[in-house]
Write a structure and sequence with these properties.
The structure is a single chain. The protein is an alpha/beta fold and 666 residues long. 48% of the residues lie in helices and 12% in strands. The strands form three sheets. An eight-stranded mixed sheet has the order 13-12-11-14-15-16-17-18, with helices on both faces. Strand 16 and strand 17 form a beta hairpin. Helix 9 runs antiparallel to helix 10. The chain starts with a strand and ends in a 6-residue tail after the last helix.
Length: 666
């Protein structure tokens, strides 16, 4: 096999070890890389006359991006984790014990196990460039640094290492230098290898003046307790092994020798790798990467339609949010059409949100410049003839939409893409009102649009692949995370929520309190409970959707027919302004035969309702890829990232095999 690490001893006895995981965009620690590194260490030990050692990547913008997460996700036994760690730690221990200095010459990503590799060296030198990023992000994927990071980094930079590790902070070269992680900086156009050689010579001459302060860890107990409370606040009281075991490794390890501390880290890392939270988090990391760049989801070789002018029909809640997201993320002018009395309130709302973003320094331009791209009209003007894509966000009534499409199609170009933001009306049913229906599809946004990343791109029976690709391009333009599905009641996200809500209200009617049901799902990790979610989106929305599906949910019907649409929508719902349940709602709950459920039973019942629907979507080819469902639920409704999505959760807990005899992820 081709060597990943290659050693050449140059003039003066300085060994230069270049490395490259050939065929991969990034250098990562795979089994092959571990073995090659171990062989290199053995070769160095046998090579006489070495006075210093430099590690430098042969890739143009990557030092080492850490451990290969796919490999870690596939590990099922503690023995496999131990074998990997012993090889890793054994080689790093030998590297640290060399009598001559070793220098990590960093350019590009130096993350996770890559930084731990660099920390095992005597010193680190980094090139200042946009691609250089240094940190230990493992806690962000359900793990923690297991290659010595929890022991070597605190000993190098002190208490600051705790926050860096727990938050998974990744920093540019200059900040890493300020923090003491890096010893030297090289300008972007500097010669990294030449400067690394100079550093080796300085270390050997005793003139390097490396900053290695003796840190006072006498306050470690108090600092660790504060850090623990910070974790609990971030996780809303849930125990997630990655950060807790990271803190435990630092807290206990810093009180003993480095060798003993590393043993503690190894024991804790073996535990964390096998947890469902780690495997769920890694799955979330991968499906995030799949949808980070919507253009990569388009048909290979497709050239998207240029978008020089965009129109939004409707300036209500959703129309305002869509227009806002377009003008803040692009330089494209936007036309918004609605009735005259909706225009000024709509513009005032958009400006208010933009002002808030500007105050928080989340806007790159002055508010007036952004607002200058927005034109609100009450009639179809000449400008509509130049529009390249129209997003329809009018009232959810097919007759209203029919009138809008018939008017619109007389105005816009034949090749203008038309997309509906409907949440409940089938795309195929509306397509008959659109001339050239192949250019018509769905793009379902989530509220509030400017905060929610997800959009569902919906293919009706007559929607062309070209239109789907153009909608993906539009999603990329406005920085959204898309999933693609075929026409279906509720599309993907709402399709999974509907059966969960039906079960929710059945449990309520069986005598399980509102607070109990919501708390069960909060404890699971959902951002809000299902009944509060219903109240916040508007109680009439699921009521109307169920009605359209031929389902009469008696409690919802009683609540809506009493005039309660939700606290935000009509001033009355399931809850009062102080967050407590409105006692007036209790007599409206229809009574069934009582069945008291434990929190775990509530969680399992609601989640299994989602999973069964997900299986149905896959069986009916509403989605072609199970990952689309999990992306939709994580970024559409806040399904906890450490669970990996409902379908991955079902695999990890054995629900998939129990219900269907096989896992969804192969």
């Amino acid at each position: 096999m081709s060597k990943i690490f290659d050693l050449k001893v140059e003039e003066g006895g300085i060994g230069v070890a270049r490395f490259d995981v050939a065929g991969d965009a990034m250098n990562t620690w795979t089994d092959k890389a571990f073995l090659s590194f171990d062989e290199l260490i053995g070769e160095i030990e046998k090579t006489p006359g070495i006075t210093g050692l430099i590690f430098i990547s042969s890739k143009p913008d990557n030092f080492f991006a850490g451990a290969n997460l796919k490999m870690i996700a596939e590990i099922e036994k503690s023995e496999e984790v131990l074998r990997m760690l012993n090889l890793f730690h054994g080689s790093f221990a030998k590297l640290s014990a060399f009598k001559f200095p070793s220098v990590a010459a960093i350019h590009g990503y130096c993350l996770g196990g890559g930084l731990e590799f660099a920390l095992a060296c005597t010193a680190r030198i980094a090139r200042e460039s946009k691609s250089t990023l240094i940190g230990l992000p493992e806690c962000n994927v359900g793990l923690f640094p297991g290659g010595g990071g929890t022991q070597r980094l605190p000993r190098l930079i002190g208490y600051g290492a705790i926050e860096m590790i727990l938050k998974g902070t990744m920093m540019p070269a200059a900040k890493a230098y300020e923090a003491g992680v890096v010893d030297r900086l090289v300008p972007a156009d500097g010669d990294l290898l030449a400067e690394a050689k100079k550093l080796v010579l300085e270390i050997n001459a005793g003139t390097a003046n490396l900053k290695r302060p003796a840190h006072d860890f006498s306050q470690m107990d108090a600092i660790a307790e504060m850090a623990k409370q910070g974790i609990l606040k971030a996780t809303k009281g849930r125990y997630i092994p990655g950060p807790f075991l990271a803190l435990k490794s630092i807290h206990e390890g810093i009180k003993v020798s480095l060798e003993e501390g590393l043993k503690k880290e190894i024991d804790n890392f073996v535990e964390v790798v096998l947890t469902p939270q780690a495997k769920g988090s890694i799955n979330t990391f991968f499906i995030k990467g799949m949808t980070d760049k919507p253009k990569a989801m388009m048909t290979k070789g497709f050239q998207p339609k240029p978008l020089n002018r965009i129109a939004v029909l409707g300036f209500g809640t959703m129309g305002r949010g869509i227009a806002l997201d377009i003008i803040r993320n692009t330089q494209v002018p936007v036309l918004v059409k609605d009735i005259p009395e909706a225009l000024e309130p709509g513009k005032a709302f958009v400006r208010k949100i933009l002002d808030g973003m500007a105050e928080k320094k989340r806007l790159k331009e002055p508010v007036d410049a952004v607002m200058g791209r927005l034109t609100a009209v009450s009639e179809y003007t000449e400008a509509f003839k130049e529009v390249d894509i129209v997003i329809e966000a009018v009232f959810e009534d097919i007759k209203v939409k029919q009138h809008v499409y018939e008017e619109l199609c007389k105005t816009v170009k034949k090749d203008c893409v038309i997309a509906s933001n409907t949440s409940s009306i089938p795309i195929t049913a509306m397509s008959k009102y659109v001339t050239h229906p192949e250019r018509f599809g769905g793009i379902h946004f989530f509220s509030p649009v400017w905060l929610m990343q997800l959009v569902e791109v919906i293919r009706g029976e007559r929607t062309s692949q070209e239109t789907v690709d153009n909608l993906l391009n539009f999603a990329a333009l406005i920085r959204k995370r898309p999933i693609v599905c075929r026409d279906n009641a509720g599309f993907v996200v709402n399709a999974l929520l509907f059966p969960m809500l039906i079960e929710t209200f059945r449990y309520l009617e069986e005598g399980n309190a509102i607070e109990k049901i919501d708390k069960a799902m909060l404890d699971f990790g959902m951002p809000v409970g299902p009944i509060r979610l219903t109240d916040e989106v508007g109680i009439d929305i699921p009521y109307k959707i169920f009605k359209g599906m031929g389902i009469r949910q008696e409690t919802l019907a009683a609540v809506v027919e009493s005039g309660r649409m939700g606290l935000k929508k009509s001033g009355k719902g399931f809850f009062l302004k102080d967050g407590s349940v409105d006692p007036e709602i209790l007599p409206m709950i229809v009574k069934r035969a009582p069945r008291e459920l434990k929190p775990e039973q509530i969680q399992d019942g609601l989640l299994e309702a989602m999973v069964k629907t997900g299986k149905d979507l896959l069986d009916r080819k509403v989605v072609d890829d199970v990952r689309m469902i999990d992306v939709g639920m994580i970024w559409g409704v806040g399904f906890p990232a450490d669970k990996g999505g409902p379908m991955k959760w079902a695999d990890l807990t054995g629900v998939s095999k129990k219900l269907f005899g096989a896992n969804f992820y192969k």
